[in-house]
Amino acid sequence: MKSWTKRKRYTSFTMILGSALLAAGCTGGQGGEEAAKPQTEESGKSANANFTYPMPGNIELTYMTEALGGIPARAPIDDEYQKRTGIAIKHLGGTPMTDQKFSLLLASGELPDIFLNTWLQYPGGPDKAVEQGYILKLNDLIDQHAPNLKKALQEHPEIDKMIKTDNGTYYAFPFIRSEAGRVYGGPIIRKDWLDELGLSVPETIDEWHTVLKAFKEKKNAAAPVTFRTMFLGERTAGFAGAYGVMGNYYVKNGKVVYGYLEPEYKEYLKTMNQWYKEGLIDKDFASIDAATVDKKMTSGVSGATFGWQFYIEKYNAAAQAADPKANYVAAPYPVLKKGTKPEFGQLDNAYAGTSSAAISAKTKNVEAAMRWLDYAYSEEGSMLNTFGIEGVTYVLKDGKPVYKDLVVKNPEGLGSDQVMMQYAHGTNFPMIQRDNHLPAKYQQTKDALDIWRNTNHAQHLLPPVTPTAEEADEMASIMNDINALVKEAELKIILGAEPVEAYDKYVEQMKGLGIERALEIQQAAYERYLKR
Question: Could you say which DSSP state residue 324 is in?
Fold first, then answer.
């Protein structure tokens, strides 16, 4: 394997964390290449000075992800990873932490060597998973076998703070988002329809109402706005953010609050109910899937939705084949008063807990699992995970990666993101994400993140707190019932099955189920986090 110390580098590993560092709240400006300090230690070296990749022994490890679905087809990135690390990975499909199958897996004792999952959601918390003997505590193992991760955490304590529990336990190799990667979703709208109707991209709730009525009455859109229930106000603020609230927990003036308890949430539901009565919201929104939303957005049934950034490119590509004038763009998160800044939008923590790789306590080759995971945090691993395979997906020009035609002008017509899913681990993998600046065919896709990022959401984001095992068990008991109640209340009121005034009853039910105790637990965990 070529040593990265023997060639001109694009950047030092210190810069891999550059964007994530900003996300964690560290001070200092963004450094360019001129600010990067050259790495003096060869990528692949470890605390054990005699270790280099690839690892000998023809080792095979089993690997389970959190994503539902069958076993993924082997991709070029899998072969390249095996070649570089010397470790073969056998994929076992996916089982989310919240799926009952995950509990059955643990009970069976037939555990994979590496679990990729959201360990913050483990019943009782990550400490409990270690205590029960399912996964390994990694503290000493990081010192012994993970020099790349260890170095990154030493240099960036704010990232280190996020990925351990209050008692200092490291339980998984983390997926850390870059600053740009923390925002990836928001409102999407048919700009060509707006232009045809002489309307501007809506900014306020009143403007949205005007636009959706026009879509219904003048464009004959059967469902002027369509979306899945996950976009009501939990994954993104949706329209709720205009009222200064969002579903789930967040921070307000130093205190943890639960958005569904706030009086403004009732006002938001009142508006959604009115829009539903007027036929402005998709009558099927409570039950539709992503494919149905896509079909409605590209067939003229709907003119607006909430979705992820890549939806814009996907919609434009699909619709423009039939109608070259079709133009999907990002819209800002709405407000009540024009000229004000939205309080909420969509924003993830640099470490949200997702795609975190824990190692089974029953694995027969701990060092191999550690080495395979640690490779992603090396400079060489970061380049591979971000830009793919040199000479295949990119070449270096003046020390900078430039994508090849396989990516930017794919002969099979694949989008750049589709190509890179085969040749790199850009997301949903234990790594420190860095911006890859994938070329977008549509300017609208490039503009989306800046539009959606313009909110005050960062002031309200609850960090990845870790309640104690006892607190986590109590929280789970409380929130299982409350989560179901909230979803029931939202849908009944929006659909008109119950009047808006019924929400007061649901708030009292939440209190009866223990939401105030849950808030106490979250507040205590938040205060402990701040003291880490």
Answer: T
